[in-house]
Amino acid sequence: MKTLIRPAVTLFILLSLITGLIYPLLVTGISQLLLPDQAAGSLIEREGKLIGSRLIGQNFTDPKYFWGRPSATGPYPYNAAASGGSNLGPLNPALKDVVAARVQALRNADPGNTQPAPVDLVTASGSGLDPHISPAAADYQVARVARARGLPPETVRDAVAQQTQGRQWGILGEVRVNVLELNLALDHLPLTKNP
Amino acid sequence: MTPHAWLLLGLYLLVLLLLAKPLGVYLAAVVEGRAAWAARVGGHIEAGIYRLCGVHPADGMGWLSYGLALLLFNGLGLLATYTLQRLQLWLPLNPQQLGNVSPDSAFNTAISFVSNTNWQGYGGETTMSYLTQMLALTVQNFLSAATGIVVAVALMRGFARHSVREIGNAWVDLTRITLYVLLPLAVVVAVLLVGQGVIQNLSPYQEATTVQATVYDAPKLDATGQPVKDVQGNPVTAAVTLPTQTLAMGPVASQEAIKMLGTNGGGFFNANSAHPYENPTPLTNLLEMLAILLIPAALCHTFGRLVGDARQGWAVLAAMTVLFVVAAMAVMSFEQQGNPTFAALGVDQAAGNLEGKELRFGSADSALFAAVTTAASCGAVNAMHDSFTPLGGMVPLVLMQLGEVVFGGVGSGLYGMLVFAIMAVFISGLMIGRTPEYLGKKIEVYEMKMMAIAILVTPLLVLSGTAVAVMTTSGRAGILNPGAHGFSEVLYAFTSAANNNGSAFAGLSANTPFYNVLLGIAMWLGRFGIIVPVLAMAGSLAAKKRLGETSGSLPTHGPLFVTLLIGTVLLVGLLNYVPALALGPVIEHLLLWAGR
């Protein structure tokens, strides 16, 4: 037993320094050098001001913006300093109630729209920070956004198409639209008329 | 299953199996000390470590010394991980000034990361400083993985060697696995992850001015910081306008890489691999899934190499792959079905069950990830398992309950599966009336006793822990979802802890002294309650003579043995857990589809 103590302590300290300091600092160094933008968080700046990250969703409730996935973070939605999902089970009455309320909110914002609500627009994401919605969810909102902005629906639909990403390598993941980038693109359309 | 799901599963398996073979061969070279290329690059570092430690690499250890060495080494890990958490406020690299972690939570997390479970009662970005994430948690991600691998290697040597006492040198094995296998793989994976958008920095959290301000109701506080209540005693809320979003930062990629490669699974952020900064694209999702099963699959080939018969490794790998494919197909199908309670609400569920899932992964890539992470004892999640359909959530539960042997944790999956292989040869020996032997080693009373301990320790921990929790007020207090699902949350927690997985039905509020202590004990015993008997078995096997193959030996490399092995794993798993599963996910499934 005694002969084991010195190697145990020394090896633990040495391997801790290698894997706990040298390794993460080495990866940080390589990343800062080769991939500084990604390593810093894919941040978006406008006029020198940080306005968010391409990878982190933001909360949108204004009819002139496309809305993202519902977010279950607390104490407010899209809290990027405390990620998380609702963890509601499929049979939990609270889940059914909150989904019904979200469907109702979508209907209230666009009474003429009688399509069924796409499931991603009424269910909370796992991280609470999901930056994407499906093309179906974007399509569902085109009429509302166009009306609120006084734009022809085709213009809005074109903007959606431009921001739509296909499956990665044609196989991986889902077809998706980045909500923040889409809304930023809409805000910068030359014809934008603020209501 | 959709065509997309089939394609994804096929691609995943193809790449995994292609990568596993060369890595397994390399791993065999490393543990046998004949990896020339590695020694040229890191040989002087390795030699320097041995000099400082006073280790003579040629000296072998008996199983007892080997086991004591590992216990001591992991004991130090426990102490360091606990201490760093308790002192982090006064240590550097804590830009958010996060406070010291509470004693019970720090105790739970220390055991959790040392035992390769990486169960998390806390939320990473609100609890752990960068220094704790690096010097406590990342370190244990490496060292607990190395511990698992060296135990598996020791057991392989037990089969490969004959008439000797030594099963290797623990210090040498730990050093080589860390330096020559885990570190280089982790650097490559980490940089690939950053390329796709995983963050890697030491900056303080960033404040962004959002496009639209968020308005929410917050409880009103009086001058002393207490919530204001109205005449009925309800808290008063006021609308608050928040023009900014705080983006959590940190050295994420370096931890993410080893979190997957070492089948650890502890997320940098609370949302784990669902968080866009941990898993930003479908490609990182594939990469992370590959990293999880890579070493467990490769070790099957290492096993074949070390025992001198590659077919033995293929047989074990085949049994694991069959069980995995069936499980993955099941989760993918169940999650595609969606939630019948939404049908009347006017919801289009063509995309499947998306509650708790990220849109970029959808139901297929999320379901496959769930199968991968629970087949391995990883426990990282890219979707909230608590919100899966009842049967979609039952499959991960079953994969863990089989003892984490369907690939399983790095090392622990293989030694777990070899324990089942010994049971399978024992059962078939009884059926054909011959002395059971495996790889030329007679399986006798001592091996059977150790096997029985290794197989029974986890069901005992899971079932008694669940029983205690549902019978006590403090246990029931943590449950979020009502009814059968609440029972599943508790069952999942103890299953995950005792089998060292670490994923959760995360609605359970487990960051309480009750759960922190009870789950901590389950994790420790579930880890070392298996490692010790496995090492004892390795020692006993190494001392035996190696018998030649005769016409009466049962071949352990053909489809017959693979079937027997699968049958044994399923039989033991199902016998232990069917009643508990019936009370949880099965009832919930019946109620859900009956429209209750």
UniProtKB/TrEMBL annotation, chain A:
InterPro entries: KdpC. One of its GO terms (molecular function) is hydrolase activity. Keywords: ATP-binding, Cell membrane, Hydrolase, Ion transport, Membrane, Nucleotide-binding, Potassium, Potassium transport, Transmembrane, Transmembrane helix, Transport. It holds the Pfam family KdpC. GO terms for cellular component: plasma membrane. It is found in: Cell membrane. The system is composed of three essential subunits: KdpA, KdpB and KdpC. This is Potassium-transporting ATPase KdpC subunit. It comes from Candidatus Competibacter denitrificans Run_A_D11. The lineage of its organism: Bacteria, Pseudomonadati, Pseudomonadota, Gammaproteobacteria, Candidatus Competibacteraceae.
Automatic annotation (TrEMBL), chain B:
Its main location: membrane. It is a multi-pass membrane protein. Pfam families: KdpA (PF03814). The keyword Oxidoreductase does not apply. It comes from the Bacteria. One of its GO terms (cellular component) is plasma membrane. GO terms for molecular function: hydrolase activity; P-type potassium transmembrane transporter activity; potassium ion binding. Belongs to the KdpA family. Part of the high-affinity ATP-driven potassium transport (or Kdp) system, which catalyzes the hydrolysis of ATP coupled with the electrogenic transport of potassium into the cytoplasm. This subunit binds the extracellular potassium ions and delivers the ions to the membrane domain of KdpB through an intramembrane tunnel. The system is composed of three essential subunits: KdpA, KdpB and KdpC. This is Potassium-transporting ATPase potassium-binding subunit. It comes from Candidatus Competibacter denitrificans Run_A_D11. The gene is kdpA.
